[in-house]
From TrEMBL:
Keyword vocabulary terms for this entry: DNA-binding, Phosphoprotein
Protein name: DNA-binding response regulator
Classification via PANTHER family: TRANSCRIPTIONAL REGULATORY PROTEIN DESR (PTHR43214:SF42), TWO-COMPONENT RESPONSE REGULATOR (PTHR43214)
Keyword Transmembrane appears in the UniProt entry: no
Response regulatory domain mapped to chain residues: 8-123
C-alpha cells in the first residue's frame, strides 16, 4: 500500500531557539522540514529553492518583513500555503498578513498540538486562525465588500461559474472550511480545492480574501 508523501514544511523565524524547536516538533510529527530561515531575504531564496507545501512564517523579520515575504512567495507560487506564527495578536497585523496571502494565523501561545493540527489543515487549504481571529477576518471581508471594487468580473463576456462552483463559493463566503464544505456537499476535499482554484482562475482573482469579497459583494453569503 502506497504511503502518502510527507508534507514539506519550511520554518521562518529570527529567533534560532524558537525556530529550531518548531522545526524539531514538526519533524518528530512526521513532516519533512525542507528548510529554515532567520531573515526575510533568506526566506525568499530558500523557499524558492526548497518549494515547501507550507511555510510557517513569523512576521517580525530582519531584512524583509514577513508580509512582504508572504506576498512575494505566494505571487510566485499560488499553491504555497502560508501559516503565520506570530507573537502579535494585533488586528492590523492579522489583516495585513491575510491580505498578503496567508492562509492562516496562529499565535505563538498555541500548544504544540495546535500548531501541528494547524499545519495539517493549512496544507489542506483550510483557513486556520487562533480562536477569536476568524471573526475579525470575516468582519474585514464584509467591510471590504461594502467598498467599491475596481474589479468588474461580471461585465458582459466574463466567464460564468457552474452551479457547483457557485455553491462552493457561497459556502466559502459563509466562512466554512474546505473540509466542512466537502462534508456538506458530499464531495472530496480535493474536489472542493479544484472548484476553488477553477473559480479563482475564471474570475481572475488571486486568493481567498478576494474570493470572499467577491462573494459577499454579490450577497452569496446571505443565501
Amino acid at each position: 500500500m502506497n504511503e502518502q508523501p510527507a508534507l514539506k514544511v519550511m520554518v521562518v523565524d529570527d529567533h534560532p531557539m524558537w525556530r529550531d524547536a518548531v522545526a524539531r516538533d514538526l519533524a518528530e510529527a512526521g513532516f519533512e522540514v525542507v528548510a529554515t530561515a532567520g531573515d526575510g531575504l533568506q526566506a525568499v531564496r530558500r523557499a524558492q529553492a526548497a518549494a515547501p507545501d507550507v511555510l510557517v512564517l513569523d512576521l517580525n523579520l530582519p531584512g524583509l518583513p514577513g508580509v512582504r515575504v508572504c506576498k512575494e512567495l505566494v505571487a510566485a507560487r499560488p499553491a504555497l500555503r502560508v501559516l503565520v506564527l506570530s507573537a502579535s495578536g494585533e488586528h492590523a497585523d492579522v489583516l495585513e498578513a491575510v491580505k498578503s496571502g496567508a492562509t492562516g494565523y496562529l499565535l505563538k501561545s498555541a500548544s504544540t498540538q495546535e500548531l501541528l493540527d494547524a499545519v495539517r489543515r493549512t496544507a489542506a487549504g483550510d483557513a486556520v486562525f487562533t480562536p477569536g481571529l476568524a471573526g475579525l477576518v470575516l468582519g474585514e471581508y464584509r467591510r471590504l465588500a461594502a467598498e467599491p471594487s475596481p474589479a468588474t468580473p461580471d461585465e458582459p463576456g466574463a466567464p460564468q461559474l457552474t452551479d457547483r462552483e457557485t455553491e462552493v463559493l457561497r459556502l466559502v463566503a459563509k466562512g466554512l472550511s474546505y473540509k466542512q464544505i466537502a462534508e456538506r456537499l458530499v464531495i472530496s476535499h480535493r474536489t472542493v480545492q479544484n472548484h476553488v482554484q477553477n473559480t479563482l482562475g475564471k474570475l481572475q482573482l488571486h486568493n481567498r480574501v478576494e474570493l470572499v469579497r467577491y462573494a459577499i459583494e454579490r450577497g452569496l453569503d446571505e443565501v
